[in-house]
Amino acid sequence: MNDKQHTIKAPVTVSGIGLHTGVQATMTFCPAPVGHGYKFQRVDLPGQPIVDADVDNVVDLSRGTTIEQNGARVNTVEHTLAALVGLQIDNVLIQLDGPEPPIMDGSSYEFIEALEQAGLEEQNALRNYFEIPEEIRFLDNARGVEIAALPLNDYRLTVMVDYNSPVLGSQHASLTDISHFKADIASSRTFCFLHELEALYKQNLIRGGDLSNAIVVVDRVVSEDELSELATMLGKPKVAVKKEGILNNVDLRHKNEPARHKLLDMVGDLALVGRPLKGQILAARPGHAANVAFAKKIKKKMLEADSSPIPSYDPSRTPVMDINQIAATLPHRYPFLLIDKIIHLDATTVTGVKNVTMNEPFFQGHFPGNPVMPGVLQIEAMAQTGGILVLNTVPDPENYWTYFMGIENCRFRRKVIPGDTLIFRCQLLAPIKRGIAKMKGQAFVNGKVVMEAEMSASIVRKDA
């Protein structure tokens, strides 16, 4: 799995008809900055409103997942989102000139091809994974649905479906590595049963459905009159039933293509939690309603974890900035360069790490025999961490200085000694105006606050 966030290098466009609305639409994937996530934009509506791909915005689950925000609705988002998750793309603006993404061939494959054509671009921030902390379970006894998420340092999904159909039987599909999504899952097409077709039509759904973008499973004997009626409904001169029960002799791409498509749908629906996941997902008879209910349970756990102010730090992960990149950004040098790595950086927040050792030069004269890191140097290290955040807001940081103008509400809670790993987190308290930044900073050791302060800084051009 990727450690760094990714977007795409350039915009790329696909066009086609929507599965349920039957409306022709053009969809453009656009690059987006760090921390942007997935957002749809209805460019055909007044004001071009944005719809966040968020489980809290789900408003309809009639054969697909529909989201709505700011007076704008986007139907059937799951295949589009599955392609982005499958390529481990984090930040994209999806511009759409209609109510529904094009269905294409009924799978995610053509979206994958378009995104790969645009090219992926690594961004200077770590992926903000949500790691499943404990078993999360969803049950719908009436529908025989069960979904569970278990802790795992990876993202794996297994789906089992059983439609009580002699044609499909019981099927299962697994994705053991997200990098295999394109090869193993992306090309699996949407499907429905023959007995559902007429009902869906009467509900004003599948107006863009076609035998080229959906598999129709025939699980009973069909008369010639019914086939003629189907042909008229689908706008075809003739339809037929293949011996294994697939309408119009459509060949399956995989023996378990329906199960694989259910897994594809689940990948897309779970993208609505808003962050890439790490965990083992096991699902029996899932559908959009269950997927979304399950995603809401995951998001609730995620928000509970996020309410904790303690930054997580995994020393094994590649940092956003190592010491050489920090030295290329800040003017400080030995013995005054006081942070070792940056592990998180976005538009409003930065997290830095300082490993305190007995070899620090200040221990020679500060409390000999009782080595304690001077509070003033803790402030300086936190200020340098904040300096990285401030310089990240200008296009050419090497041409700027940052000067700290004030420190307020500073408190030292615990002493810092050799062997401690100091984690600094600085967050902007307000947007930067006229080159002045104000931020709240905290320092942690072993999950406990050791120091905190509010700091003000000024950004000044070097040639000013």
Give a summary of the structure in a few sentences:
22% of the residues lie in helices and 32% in strands. The chain is of the alpha+beta class. Strands 11, 12, 13, 14, 15 and 18 form a six-stranded mixed beta sheet that branches. A six-stranded antiparallel beta sheet has the order 19-20-22-23-24-21, with helices on one face. Strands 2-3-9-4-5 form a five-stranded mixed beta sheet, with helices on one face.
How would you characterize the overall build of this protein?
The structure is a single chain. The chain has 464 residues and is an alpha+beta fold. The chain has 3 domains: 4-186 and 258-306, lpxc deacetylase, domain 1 (Ribosomal Protein S5, domain 2), CATH 3.30.230; 191-252, no CATH class; 323-461, Hotdog Thioesterase (Thiol Ester Dehydrase, Chain A). 22% of the residues lie in helices and 32% in strands. The protein is built from 9 helices and 24 strands. The strands form 6 sheets. Strands 11, 12, 13, 14, 15 and 18 form a 6-stranded mixed sheet that branches. Strand 23 (436-445) and strand 24 form a beta hairpin. Helix 1 (78-86) packs across helix 2 (109-118), helix 1 (78-86) crosses helix 6 and helix 6 (257-270) packs parallel to helix 7. The longest helix is centred in the middle third of the chain and has 19 residues, at 288-306. The chain is elongated and about 95 Å long. The model has no long low-confidence stretch (mean pLDDT 88).
